[in-house]
Sequence to fold (1386 residues):
Amino acid sequence: MRDLAKEPEAARRALETMWTARRFEEAVDQLFARGLMHGTMHLSIGQEASATGTCLALRDDDLITSTHRGHSHCVAKGANLTRMMAELLAKDSGYCRGRGGSMHIADVATGNLGANGIVGGGIPIAVGAALAQKLTGSGKVVVSFFGDGAANEGAFHEAANLAAVWDLPVVFVCENNHYGMSMAADEAFAIDNISARAGAYGFPGVTVDGNDLQAVYEMVTTAAERARAGRGPTLVENVTYRWKGHSKSDKNLYRTREEIAAWQERDPITRFEDAVRKAGSLTDPEITAARKAATDAVREAIRTANAAPAAPADRDLLLDAVYADADAGNHAEVPA
Amino acid sequence: MRDLAKEPEAARRALETMWTARRFEEAVDQLFARGLMHGTMHLSIGQEASATGTCLALRDDDLITSTHRGHSHCVAKGANLTRMMAELLAKDSGYCRGRGGSMHIADVATGNLGANGIVGGGIPIAVGAALAQKLTGSGKVVVSFFGDGAANEGAFHEAANLAAVWDLPVVFVCENNHYGMSMAADEAFAIDNISARAGAYGFPGVTVDGNDLQAVYEMVTTAAERARAGRGPTLVENVTYRWKGHSKSDKNLYRTREEIAAWQERDPITRFEDAVRKAGSLTDPEITAARKAATDAVREAIRTANAAPAAPADRDLLLDAVYADADAGNHAEVPA
Amino acid sequence: MTTPTSPTVSPDVDNPTDGPGVAAAGATPGDTRELTYAEAVRETLTDLMADDERVFLMGEDIGVYGGAFGVTTGLLERFGRERVRDTPISEIAIVGAGVGAALCGMLPIVELQFSDFVTCAMDQIVNQAAKIHFMLGGAAQVPLVIRAPAGSGTGAAAQHSQSLEAWFAHVPGIKVVMPATPADAMGLLRAAVDDPNPVLVLEHKLLYKQKGEVPAGHYVPLGKAEVRRRGSDLTIVATAVMVGKAMAAAEELAAEGIEVTVVDPRTISPLDEATILTEVAATGKALLVQEAPRNAGFVAEIAARIVESDAFHTLKAPVVRLAGLDTPMAYAPELEKASVPQIPDIVVAARRLAKGA
Amino acid sequence: MTTPTSPTVSPDVDNPTDGPGVAAAGATPGDTRELTYAEAVRETLTDLMADDERVFLMGEDIGVYGGAFGVTTGLLERFGRERVRDTPISEIAIVGAGVGAALCGMLPIVELQFSDFVTCAMDQIVNQAAKIHFMLGGAAQVPLVIRAPAGSGTGAAAQHSQSLEAWFAHVPGIKVVMPATPADAMGLLRAAVDDPNPVLVLEHKLLYKQKGEVPAGHYVPLGKAEVRRRGSDLTIVATAVMVGKAMAAAEELAAEGIEVTVVDPRTISPLDEATILTEVAATGKALLVQEAPRNAGFVAEIAARIVESDAFHTLKAPVVRLAGLDTPMAYAPELEKASVPQIPDIVVAARRLAKGA
Ligand SMILES: Cc1ncc(C[n+]2csc(CCOP(=O)(O)OP(=O)(O)O)c2C)c(N)n1
Ligand SMILES: Cc1ncc(C[n+]2csc(CCOP(=O)(O)OP(=O)(O)O)c2C)c(N)n1
Ligand SMILES: [Mg+2]
Ligand SMILES: [Mg+2]
Fold:
């Protein structure tokens, strides 16, 4: 297995991706606080190694489904920051033309089939996408991201079983950040590891330190290989932690300041920077440069997105947008 | 643990219950074939030890939820045969006044909260009933019957987990008769024993020879004790087989005649009769008498039910029956 | 059994094969043969699968069992297990897998064994399939077809007899068709698969055995109502099994000298409002007939469209609705029959409306 | 944010506490205080739980978090974990457990975090809760209350902004209320818990912070509409957040000399048809306003009831519907605002209707 920290290009890419996700969400947090952004949003700050390690284990044309907490998945899969930011700023140039917002960003071109506002809603969709890969023999793999809370939805159960009995090329990546909104995983489950649920469907499950980029990368690589070889799904549980509240309305009453601080000590980005330093693959200036590249890219994205025209509040345009044009036929936009 | 075959009264009761269920369904089958019964029905012939062994392990005031294949549960929990038959014959004196039919028979007085036309639909209801017992400290236990097929519904998953995290007094009895309609359990599951799913929720699961009345009785007794002691649910998988088609439209194309014949060799009633004979608790005439009592009771039920007036096809009566009378207040009919 | 008299309604002569010219299985295009409604669905599925690799089927017991109503009989043998996929009993996963496969360029046709089971998959149908194209700003489409047998009449009681079309007409982003004849069963299904949007095809289980003339390769565009007969006294708008009942009632009424128009919307979303309003305006009297319970049912929408349009000014009498009772469906055959409009009910209501001011 | 101007509508003076006289928490019966809509719900929950051991709460994040909209804040401390039950994210189990507990004599009040998530629990709501009493021939009842925040206006986009009341009005066996004021939020909830049938309480999330006078222990019987103001030119029937908008529009219209009646059905199933028809007949003009998409929405039912009744003959103009766009709800604030009727839209439509023939 590759050791990402040891390969300069991979290490740089991983760092820049994690920093980009981090900086993007920090910016979003501020824009919100300053009343410049609207609606609601769910930040994955602290969870970047899960998204990044997972996506680094995939091929560019592999697919993912994401969640309400999806910015880092989106970034890690290679989305355009300006279009992401434009979407959050309700611009016509956003990924969803201002119609979807944070919970519905998708980037079909980079294989991101979309965030989802329904907890667990993306899991059956991922399984269907995997079925399409199997039927067409595309050789592609689908990763379904979801949270600990989502593992208690019926959608998870049905989708996991279907993938199992059909040996579909899907990897279930459960990002266990210890809470479903305010509900502690300890109280929502009577088992220690969510990965143990894989046994109920007959495929392997593993629990991983989700703040260890290399560990995530290795597990998902193994799982993706298995999937690609036609041997069916794997459940990878990335244990991690969200630093920020669930959404803007969260007062963090269900957890302690100490707990948050302890997890901030385990910052996945710092950890990987340390690993890179130890491996000696990048110099300190190179490490700093990766961080700065991310900061600059986000700043530039905000600038460009901000300057773009707002999504037009035109009723006819909205009505026209409900159905795909029947005359254009049912030709897929994602070549399967 | 008691050995039912050794106790004359228990043995007689078990035999009579199983024979009653068998004779009842044989009668239903014939009434259908002769065009005297309407709608659809699902027979549990061949599965009687599961229903009977389970209900014998319960107290009279314990509760059950049942399924579309629910006649034997209903009989085993002590329902009135005439009212059951009257319901199937669409009579006003039927359990549901002719409004529910086979898939909705309930007998609140004997603790049967109802059959269900929705696969898996009764499982969350059983969990809620168990929650009521816990909240009121009634000491009662709830058994939720469901099929192998139902274990792939989201409802099973969510309900099982909820019962687990709240340590509810419920016993999940999965009657694995090898098929969900035409779908072989082998193809619907990538695991060998459905009972293994209990591990996903953190409670015990056991697979039982569902055609062995004593084995079922013992497992459910243990599970019910555990539940009553506040130690939470158990999943008991009764492996059994249905002799008849799924419903009247079934051509049995998905299984072989030989398979059916092999299972008929393992008739749960014959097996228990043999055990009783071996134990010497009942004489042959007594065994025959139990069977005859069942046959007579069913014959009498048909006679009485047949003579009763049909449910009146009165639109106003139907409209009146939709809502419980608000003036009567929300007083429960099942004292919890 | 309360199977209603199902008169063979006239074939769809105004709308011959005007869609993509797909050759029908075992039939030369242009041929017209008598098929049952179930056969028409089966033949269409066969054609579509033979014609386009992207089409595949998923559902409970659709393989060797042939589906609860025998509609997919023989398809497993012809197309194999990869394309005729028996599923576990998992409606969320069935529909969700359809959504995901459709997003990736396949053309899945999924079957829900009874339309009542949409209740187990509403999130995937309503929040995912119907909304994805819009929510993603047009960047993806979900060409998913969901087939589901609807309606009462088989003694299957309250959880297996519902007519839930109104719910989906209220969901922007999904199209809804209710074929009332074998020809429409073929033509609308073909159009549904041809459409880049999710389409819910509500087949009526009492119609499966009904026979009718079906042109080979028949195609009925979505969103076009059919005027099944014309008369000057009154306009009946009816859906699904009520179309046949309305036609039978019309025959009886004609014998008494009352001439009625019968309009079958066929697609209820998007609705062919123009045809309905024109036909109602032509007679000035509207009788709206559905099997579903009255309250907030689909024909309420038709009533609303009539009275908020210019057709309002042409009305000579209040609009009349005939609908199922506002009750869950009862099991007993006579109760079931009493719960939905029957031919005599339509005759009586139409007669009263025709004779009234 | 598109929070509409929410005029404080007048308290329910015609319907003072006429239900069971339950003493309000921290307030003497008969007292009238200003409360927000959220406070009114919270106080009612507190009263009911204090008063009846059978009442308990279940839902996602209703404990220490106080619910996504803070409605249940403080109840965990007061009543403890047994009676204020935080659940896993499992809507089928939440509603299903409510059904089972209700069947066994408890009075569960379950919260769905957003009303959109009914889609995850439709079987339990529609096939179980609503039908059990009927299917079982009356042998059981399901006194389950489901609370759910509905509607748009918070920038939460298509899966968190729906107004799905029409679906449930189409389901015999469940009652549906849509409180539009703090007083009704209290009174209808109390009546809902008092009712032996399942009741869906659709709270509108934009109203939670709205203030209004609330009589302590207030009780509003189910199935009774409220005439919020009377005028002779035209009758507006509006639901939920549209009631406040209609009242604001009415003020503007009054300034131009157009006097409107505003009727709030409050309970949409069973509907107080008599009041609506009387008020429409009194002016001869009806403007029906809802937030939900137009197609097959609830006010279509009101339109149908009007035109199939004698009120039809009193109509001086076509019935007018103002409704949400037939689209999924968009995220961008201006798009969201454009997607549902706003006060100026009501003013314009009312003016046109009042002045037209
Ligand atoms: C079906 C459904 N139920 C509830 C919600 C409300 N909700 C949004 S996010 C969330 C918590 C999800 O927890 P988890 O799956 O662990 O993801 P995390 O937020 O921790 O990333 C909840 C309850 C929802 N969006 N959809
Ligand atoms: C939600 C739902 N899906 C599908 C069906 C149709 N159906 C009725 S029984 C059945 C098979 C059930 O299998 P299982 O749970 O194993 O019970 P069994 O019939 O074998 O007793 C199916 C698919 C249904 N009634 N409800
Ligand atoms: Mg989480
Ligand atoms: Mg089975």
About this structure: Residues 50 and 210 of chain A are 5 Å apart (CA to CA).
